[in-house]
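hey so i finally got around to running the thing on that chain from the lab meeting. sorry it took forever, my laptop kept dying and i had to restart like 3 times. anyway pasting the input first so we r on the same page abt which one it is
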Amino acid sequence: MRKPRKRSFQELVLENKMQLLKDREAIEKIEERLEKKHLKKAR
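ok and heres what got predicted. didnt touch it at all, straight out
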């Protein structure tokens, strides 16, 4: 049997991005985290 080819980092990032774009709940969590981060910097 052949070994499965290891994916490059870029391929993994793209795959992860596509999954996140389909996952509305995950996007909202990330946006919420970013907002909190920016609010801390603004103060």
